[in-house]
Amino acid sequence: MTSAPSRTVRIGVLGGGTVAxxxxxxLRERAADLAVQAGARLEVVAVAVADVAKQxxxxxxxxxxxxxATAVVADPTVDVVVELIGGVDVAGPLVRAALEAGKxxxxxxxxxxxxxxxxxxxxxxRSRGVDLLYEAAVAGAIPLVRALRQSLTGERIxxxxxxxxxxxxxxxxxxxxxxEPYEAVLAEAQRLGLAERDPTADVAGYDAAAKAAILAGVxxxxxxxxxxxxxxxxxxxxxPDVAFARRSGHVIxxxxxxERLGVGSVSVRVHPxxxxxxxxxxxxxxxxxxxxxxxxxxxELMLYGQGAGGLPTASAVVxxxxxxxxxxxxxxxxxTPERSPVHLxxxxxxxxxxxxxxxxxxxPGVLGAVxxxxxxxxxxxxxxxxxxPERLADEEGAxxxxxxxMARLLFVTHEATTGDVVATLDDLGGVPxxxxxxxxxxxxxxxxx
Amino acid sequence: MTSAPSRTVRIGVLGGGTVAxxxxxxLRERAADLAVQAGARLEVVAVAVADVAKQxxxxxxxxxxxxxATAVVADPTVDVVVELIGGVDVAGPLVRAALEAGKxxxxxxxxxxxxxxxxxxxxxxRSRGVDLLYEAAVAGAIPLVRALRQSLTGERIxxxxxxxxxxxxxxxxxxxxxxEPYEAVLAEAQRLGLAERDPTADVAGYDAAAKAAILAGVxxxxxxxxxxxxxxxxxxxxxPDVAFARRSGHVIxxxxxxERLGVGSVSVRVHPxxxxxxxxxxxxxxxxxxxxxxxxxxxELMLYGQGAGGLPTASAVVxxxxxxxxxxxxxxxxxTPERSPVHLxxxxxxxxxxxxxxxxxxxPGVLGAVxxxxxxxxxxxxxxxxxxPERLADEEGAxxxxxxxMARLLFVTHEATTGDVVATLDDLGGVPxxxxxxxxxxxxxxxxx
Lengths: 449, 449
Prior knowledge:
Two copies of one chain form a homodimer. By secondary structure, chain A is α/β, with parallel strands linked by helices. The first copy, chain A, has helices at residues 20-29, 31-38, 69-74, 91-100, 110-113, 116-128, 144-151, 166-178, 182-191, 200-203, 206-220, 239-247, 310-330, 366-376, 389-402, 418-429; strands spanning 8-14, 41-48, 65-66, 80-83, 105-107, 132-133, 157-163, 230-231, 250-262, 265-276, 288-295, 299-306, 343-344, 351-361, 381-387, 406-413, 416-417, 434-443. The termini of chain A are far apart.
């Protein structure tokens, strides 16, 4: 029915890792279908890798492999550059060279995009009228960047909240499902390859912070770099927190939040959050990602899917390659509104309800002193539960019995500023009888049942 | 920071209803922002309505209102036509005239798009190189059409399953939450304006069927019209079905399903379905819509949001208007792969597990005869529950006591073809002691948890 297109767009792939191989595979195996979509034959002409001697999957023909990424970018027969190296130092100059040569770049490199150099590269691409596309950099296969850049282009977005790190969502899901402690589920995730041997980038929230920075740009048109993002990870979350969340109708999620607070003023942050089980984000389980978008006219939207993995990520990269090819042939680019300067609102003034957990000595007077500390900073208590030694021993066996003479206090506050809550927690650490300020987690407001 | 664009794109709006007013309102109130996005000032120059005398919201200035839609389409100063009249007879010729005049058309008209004329209009738009955009026609504010048309353009889509009718999803949610019978929740929905006085188009599945037809085109590139869609509504769903779903870990949803079965062969259908509570579609409550997409490379994706309502739908329309304006200025169109001929697979051969509910006389021998009927057609029973008169009376009070001498049989079958299940149900109607074949509902396979 459809005649083969006469034109060819030549693709240079930089990187030979877990995403590059399925990208090359999809571009070659699905060539006929993709040619119809792109309006041109998409031909992979080179795959630049760090180690040419290394064994490659069959999807990557040896004849295409080269060790010279700079030459691939400079090659005048390469029309589109796909950067899958990752990181800033090596990938940055290559992306810059491609854009300066007027070549569209498709990348999945969140570190680069969330760096100060990322902002400069976006600006360069815009001024040169060249595509810099990065659907795969946030939430993998989920068509989020295009939705925000194009579908919701007429929409005034109020807030974007994402579960954008699959590893931490897997860990939190397993803690919620199985009553197992953090260390046990982390070990299991490492065994399954769902967490790195050094899980810091995931569990400390750094990966999510880079994605939050990119989301701020895509949703609001602000250049934010990862080091400007307030970041709390999940390492403080323990089984008592998960259990409290469950019995109060919540689930704990690590959220990347980008929120418009006023003209040119946004809050960009990553932190664990108690989310109502009726909220659509609560149903996002295991290693899945989702991004919840609130628009003034569109209302609530959520996009859900696989946030990582070679093939899903490759799917997003190939979608961008098709776009880049189409735009190249028609002499246009994807919409890239000019970026504006931004004021990042400090966290101190943000208001939220909080869940607070304290370990205290089980003796008279402690609760009163604790309540006084809350009151001193104007943080009003909405509810309190005390778990006594007996109950801890019943629930937690040996661990509970070790805690003889201790009690656990679980508070939910009314809405208060982060500044006041942080000051309260600081004071609580010095209240006689308070053994440990174990945790303080924000509670997401949610109007519906 | 951003200079005002010098060009103007003139918009003619057809229709003065619940979507037209917020469309005009957004285009006028947000003119400055939208001009940046579109690269041109978007000016509404006319709003054609059926009754010019009728009072309009303030968003629609009286000076723009006209009764002559044909003149708006023909007006050489109108660059883009936004069709929000709905239906086929009036809207169809207007959309045709606009496309023939080379004017991009943005429409939310699912009836037109799912009609045979819709296929001809898409073909006309493609051959003329003019945009025909309809993001708002399926799932309201959810950026689904663009995701399928653009983001997933490189993706081989296997299946699309949507909750695309807010009214029925609201009814099923309330039945699940509140133990109330269908009639009561329908009456309440009508009181709240969430169901029409004559709810047939929604509850019989016709609205969802039109959207399924459009999805078949967007996801697979096949022209399917609404009368080719197999359609079962929710009117047979009663409280015992909802209760069984709940205690078996499911929730009943009305799904529009578009599934690739082979080259050029798809199944397009609408029917109630038992969905595992762990499936992301199960968490889509109230009047919300969601579409679950399975791609070969991308894996599972879901897009969730408001499927109806003036403002959310208007948001999608305005997104399309911006696209149309951008494309018009750059001389391109949105990607519209050529449509292919399709073989619609008859339902008979499709395999599924089924839930079946029978009302029978509570006497020996009936169960045996029923089981024999299943066996006769090779439909294997996976589980059976019998609810006796005592239990019915306990559970259902007066209604249960009226059923003295009756029992309820609830079966779950192993996977069987629709043809065999339908033949079994036909036979069961004639089995002595079977009072009523009350329901038979497909069960969605779901591998996880």
